[in-house]
Amino acid sequence: MEKLNEQAREEFVELIAKSLQQERMEAFRELFLDLHPADQAEVFLELDEERAVVYEFLSPEEFAEVFDSFEPEVQKEVALQLNDQYAAEVYNNMYADDVADFLGELEPRQMTHILQAMDQEDANDVRELLAYEDKTAGAIMTKEFVSIKATDTIDEVIDHLRREGPDAETIYYLYVVDEEEKLAGVASIRDLIVADSDRTVSEVMSSRVVSVHVEDDQEEVAQLIQKYDFLATPVIDSEGRLAGIVTVDDALDVLAEEASEDIGEISGSRGSTDVSVNAFKAARLRAPWIILLMFLGLFTAQVIGWFESTLESVVLLAAFIPMIMGSAGNTGTQSLAVSVRALATGNIERKGLWRTISREFSTGIMIGVASGIVITILLYLFYGEPLIGVIVGFSIMISLGMASVIGTLVPLVINKLKLDPAIASGPFITTLTDIISLLIYFTVASSLIQSI
Question: What pairs with residue 241 in β-bridges?
């Protein structure tokens, strides 16, 4: 399969569109089917009136790969253009987990209609996946895998692979089950190929299998696949039976999805980071955070009011409020990102809670010392006010250290409450550090001014 660059894709779209307009099926198929499915999907989306001809020139089995490469919103749009029989055959030729992902985006009535149109066996596999709780191993696993018996000979396994392999999502690992379909071992395709044909699976398989449970969180499953560099991992039910497998491509999708969710949480824009979301929905999703933080921001004004007399005595202090607040907010957000990432990867458990907090506090203090020295020197040079420089410099040093601790601790506390630590969003941390940094700034200022 050929992969297209931007210029080649534009040329292909023009050639393919022309072959469709002229209804030259062989020319179209030769051009289109030589592309990678991901490029086929991109080319297809460039077409307009010609799409109806594509459905005539491609079999449902061929179009299934193209359909699977679309984003969910595009799948819903394209599905409406297909007649019921063609659509049912497309779904029958997709892997069960991919069909389940698509149906999960639809209304219950539409989902039922599609499942009724599909082959009964394929539909049952999809129903099983849909029955699992969202974001679990069971919900993302595929049912298309190859299982073998420990008593099978290598010759028998190879014959079995020739029959079942084309329909499996991956055959790099073959999972060994006993008479009760319980997971007993695993053998790689390499183990089988290099073994003598008369040997049995039990002689070449490994009985030490790393598996996951159907109810395990999908992010934990993805991290396990990443940790062990697996191409797939088996999924077992509560009785130890092999229920399916999670493949590396699904793990990559999970990691990308979780990263997008974390970014949305940290920025206070969860659910609206997708540019395809309309403005009204994006505003509705973001507004609660903004309104909440607006009320929290009133505390900032209150803090300034408490130290009104200090500001009146040294008006120049007001000029550095934005800098103090901005520096602390930025540092807190950095520590927040470090903490959320450490929780997601399990580094907190490996490194230790107090070691992580100590490291971030030390980092904040060191940055604060460097920033404080620089700002003290600059204020002295530009304003000739050594006292103001000491106040601002010392305040930044303490504020950055505290901001680092806050940015680290808040997601850890939220995680202990069994909530997603990423909801300790950047705007929330920024507002919190604004209040604390102002308290530190004016406390330091009041103390030093009164002592002179």
Answer: 182
Comparing 107-121, 168-182, 206-220, 271-285, the range with the smallest average pLDDT is 271-285
- pLDDT bin (cut points 50, 70, 90) of residue 325 is confident
Write out the two tokens for 383.
């304003």
- Residue 421: CB atoms within 10 Å: 24
Q: Which of 122, 140, 158 is the last residue of a domain?
A: 140
Q: Which of 86, 118, 140 is the last residue of a domain?
A: 140
Domain assignment present for residue 272? The answer is: no
| pLDDT level of residue 272 (50, 70, 90 thresholds) | very low
More confident residue, 240 or 6: 240
pLDDT (0 to 100) of residue 142? 92
The Cα 17–Cα 164 span in angstroms is 37
The C-alpha atoms of residue 201 and residue 46 are separated, in whole angstroms, by 49
pLDDT at 39 > cutoff 80: yes
Calculate helix-pair angle for 353-383, 321-345, nearest 10 degrees.
Answer: 160
Q: Does residue 100 sit in the same domain as residue 167? A: no
For 348-371, how does the pLDDT look when each residue is reduced to its tens digit (9 = 90+)?
Answer: 656 666 777 788 888 888 888 888
Q: Where are the beta strands (DSSP E) in 169-277?
A: 173-177, 183-188, 212-213, 232-236, 242-247
26 and 133 part of one domain = yes
- Overall number of domains in the chain: 3
Residue % of the chain over a pLDDT of 90: 38
The reported pLDDT for the residue numbered 26 is 92
Quick one: 25 and 68 in the same domain? yes
User: Tokens 């680092």 — which residue?
Assistant: 404
* Structural domain for 197, as ranges: 147-258
Sequential DSSP letters for 210-270: --EETTSBHHHHHHHHHHHT-SEEEEE-TTSBEEEEEEHHHHHHHHHHHHHHHHHHHTT-T
- Characterize the bridge pairing of strands 173-177 and 183-188: antiparallel
Contacts of 287-290 with C-beta under 8 Å, sequence gap 24+, read 289/425, 289/427, 289/428, 290/427
> What CATH number does residue 224 fall under?
3.10.580.10
Please name the amino acid found at residue 225: I
